[in-house]
Amino acid sequence: MARLLIFLPTVCAFIAFILSILCLFAGTKKDILSGVDILTIYTSTLAAKKPGMHDFYSIHVMSYCEGFLDLNETGQRKNLTGCSDRTALFSFNPSEVLLKETGNTTSLADMGWPTAVSDDFHAFQITSKSMGVFYCIGVGTAGLVILARLWFLLVRGPRQTIAEVSLLLISFISLSIASIVATVIAFQFVNLVNYHGKNSGVTARYGNQFLGMTWAAVGLLLVGGIASLLFVLVDRSRPDPRPEAEAEAGHEAKEPVLYLEEDSDSVKTKVNTD
């Protein structure tokens, strides 16, 4: 059991790596976790809605997806039509998207879109772009933790190293920052959109699944980092057996050797201590 515990940091890093990868690439294509979004803006009841506009826009880390709402017996169902190209420095610009979809033939005010919502997105533009960068750093360092563990298993056995602790710490900090930014964007934008768009028929809802996945990855990295640090401290407190083995081997090599040497007068005994 104790031997299995030494791999706890690696297991935590591996699961966090998978979760953060899913968060990073969700919504980059229609068939890649398009429902795992940070938040979704609904424009189905927008006043003076123009042809070409979609009913909802789901915002992800590196892209956004759009589609229409289908009404059925069980309620509303999202019918996804497509997603934008992915980019690490992504920031959703509702004004640009809506004007492009309507052919730039009208102003946002004419279609009833609350311009305050566009101003809110513009104010958080740099913050939104930084989120993708921190996710990339967190994913990359979590992957390095896994590779480092495989390498150290080959060269020095199962003992933990300072390098692994450092990589886990960097990954934890990066994903924590990214998750905080995503959480602020999710709650803050939902409140702002619902407040500024209440008279225009524009609403928003944050994604519970995305927030659960990203914070689960942060928690796993925290557990893995603490466990790795404890293993390093325990290993350092143990005496290293290698110097004793070398001293013992040297002692055995210097055991006195007795041999006889015969000369003309008598038999003499010599001790070889070399």
Automatic annotation (TrEMBL):
Keywords, sorted A to Z: Membrane, Transmembrane, Transmembrane helix
Superkingdom of origin organism: Eukaryota
Any one cellular-component term (Gene Ontology): cell cortex of cell tip
Any single biological process term in GO: fungal-type cell wall organization
Coiled coil: none
Bilayer-spanning residue ranges: 132-155, 167-190, 210-234
Disordered: annotated span: 239-274
Amino acid composition bias (Basic and acidic residues), ranges on this chain: 239-255, 265-274
PANTHER family associated with the record: CELL MEMBRANE PROTEIN YLR413W-RELATED (PTHR28019), SUR7 PROTEIN (PTHR28019:SF7)
Protein name: SUR7/PalI family-domain-containing protein
